């Protein structure tokens, strides 16, 4: 039988089950086998490893994962897709389908139930674009033992996740992702690789989980608060944004503190490296400006 990720087979499955797309759930199904080849190669799976898929749709990526991994668990929010997935994936006993909203799923419990004893687990997905950032942040912040996250996202989001300091793409998402992972752009994917065609370009990005965060910080919550506050208004200087934390009355002191650690207060947040944000966080904590 032809694989699911072809235009003909996808249309046939949709017709057979009377499925209609829900734009509100970000339903754009992949029909390009070459893109799937690149996703699978980037995920580095084998029969000793597992894959968590978010949003399997009608199973085009799930089918490929089933052929590459020792265990596959796919979490799909749309109840209408569950009987379709059970039908098309029936030949694969090591594939589990879970009907759930990934953002409301207890991933630690899921890990224990589905992935115990495996050499490693990667998250591999063509993500629903309306919730890409919350999904990525949940996967990172839940501190799960993930090897790689290989995901299709909107091209702009992939550029933001992998951006280096100094450009317009660099912001709090770049820092959050790079704190936990090493990002690598795998490929750019045009709209015609999907049914229906989205009106944006997409990209596959690989986030290789670091064994330890990129920088050492006194407190992660404080570090990310400093980063968020620094980018609150991109055109403002670092000192202007950070005075929201120190209080306006301590702004001069804040300027001196930044200069002391070699960060000019007139700089904009988008020029600071992760190491510099860590140093700012440490200095603000030490001075009592960051409670
Ligand atoms: C871009 S489609 C990808 C479908 C399939 N993996 C493919 O590549 O053809 C996104 C999928 O995520 C599902 N989805 C949307 N929001 C979700 C959520 N919060 N939790 C789990 N799945 C979700 C959608 O129903 C849809 O099947």
TrEMBL record:
Source species, domain of life: Bacteria
Compartments it resides in: Cytoplasm
Amino-acid positions noted as binding S-adenosyl-L-methionine in the UniProt annotation, renumbered to this chain: 28, 30, 55, 76, 101, 126
Pfam families associated with the record: RrnaAD (PF00398)
PROSITE patterns assigned: RRNA_A_DIMETH, SAM_RNA_A_N6_MT
Coiled coil spans: none
GO MF entry, a single one: 16S rRNA (adenine(1518)-N(6)/adenine(1519)-N(6))-dimethyltransferase activity
GO cellular component: cytosol
The UniProt record lists the keyword Transcription regulation: no
Keywords: Cytoplasm, Methyltransferase, RNA-binding, rRNA processing, S-adenosyl-L-methionine, Transferase
Tagged with keyword Cell inner membrane: no
Role, per record: Specifically dimethylates two adjacent adenosines (A1518 and A1519) in the loop of a conserved hairpin near the 3'-end of 16S rRNA in the 30S particle. May play a critical role in biogenesis of 30S subunits.
Entry-linked PANTHER family: DIMETHYLADENOSINE TRANSFERASE, DIMETHYLADENOSINE TRANSFERASE-RELATED
Family, similarity comment: Belongs to the class I-like SAM-binding methyltransferase superfamily. rRNA adenine N(6)-methyltransferase family. RsmA subfamily.
Protein name: Ribosomal RNA small subunit methyltransferase A
Organismal lineage: Bacteria, Bacillati, Bacillota, Bacilli, Bacillales
